[in-house]
């Protein structure tokens, strides 16, 4: 199997891509995606376990002292790009990216030692709860409250758009406290926690609304001094999501190009018509630019990530939607039917575009950072 990357990856990174793509070609086919998105949990436990044990993907970017391989974020991006290409159904992003990065960024060695080895081994499904209704992902809008009493910390409030929130065993909740913003670990089976699956347009990524009524919680990191650390973890999540978006866009370009070569109309392949050529060229340009932006963010250091992640998330969000819409036009009416795969990518493109904030929000963030 040949994999054309067009970027400066080394041999080991190319081999990682080949291994992940080969695995997903077999275990995340269109038929399997359709089967899983119709289930309550939305993932196959055997596939989840095999990814952790056979390919060791769960611990890829987790430090060795906590059971991981200690790889860089670039390797993590390669894995996510291939998962986006295959529309993998499962809590990988929620657990291995979002929750793990929050634990790593928290500075809490005890919490990291407790949870990261289980994430690396595939024994733990985790997620993070940040957004609250229309307030979105703005940390200034956090209203969920954590208060310390004689029996420890208790959480009250609501979180929504929590990816894999209905099934996660560990939930990292961003809350306001008397001291300021805090991050708290909550057991998914805790008393007072109500989890309601949300009906979403994108059925390949499960989301839930969580309601907390005096739920017992454990602080992660220093309560009241967590804002910068949480913001940094969310920036890393945006960069990671951008690579997933780039993978989905690239898959649509490939599929649309193949279809344009084989679909005959008026005695010629439709790819021979200038309008279709232009459409495919525009899609390829958007896809390649999205990959460049996404990987720039994954290569970025701690200082660069402040502006590289919003740039990547904004561009990749728009690019994925544009490419998905272009694919629908190339495929024609069949692309909008339930039986065709193109609509699955279009829905993932739209859901990913608003996850962690829309393109306009990230452009405003980038502009503010640059002083514009």
Automatic annotation (TrEMBL):
Keyword Oxidoreductase: yes
SUPFAM superfamilies named in the record: Acyl-CoA dehydrogenase C-terminal domain-like (SSF47203), Acyl-CoA dehydrogenase NM domain-like (SSF56645)
EC main group: oxidoreductase
Domain Acyl-CoA dehydrogenase/oxidase C-terminal: 234-370
CDD domains assigned to the protein according to its UniProt record, in alphabetical order: ACAD
Top-level lineage group: Bacteria
Keyword terms, alphabetized: FAD, Flavoprotein, Oxidoreductase
Gene3D superfamilies attached to this UniProt entry: Acyl-CoA dehydrogenase/oxidase, N-terminal domain, Butyryl-CoA Dehydrogenase, subunit A, domain 2, Butyryl-CoA Dehydrogenase, subunit A, domain 3
Cofactor(s) for this UniProt protein: FAD
InterPro entries: Acyl-CoA_Oxase/DH_mid-dom, Acyl-CoA_Oxase/DH_mid-dom_sf, AcylCo_DH-like_C, AcylCo_DH/oxidase_C, AcylCoA_DH/ox_N, AcylCoA_DH/ox_N_sf, AcylCoA_DH/oxidase_NM_dom_sf
Record-level Gene Ontology MF annotations: oxidoreductase activity
Keyword Lyase: no
Acyl-CoA dehydrogenase/oxidase N-terminal domain residues: 11-123
Residue ranges of every copy of the Acyl-CoA oxidase/dehydrogenase middle domain listed in the record: 128-213
Residue spans crossing the bilayer: none
Known EC number: 1.-.-.-
Family classification: Belongs to the acyl-CoA dehydrogenase family.
The name this protein goes by in its record: Acyl-CoA dehydrogenase family protein
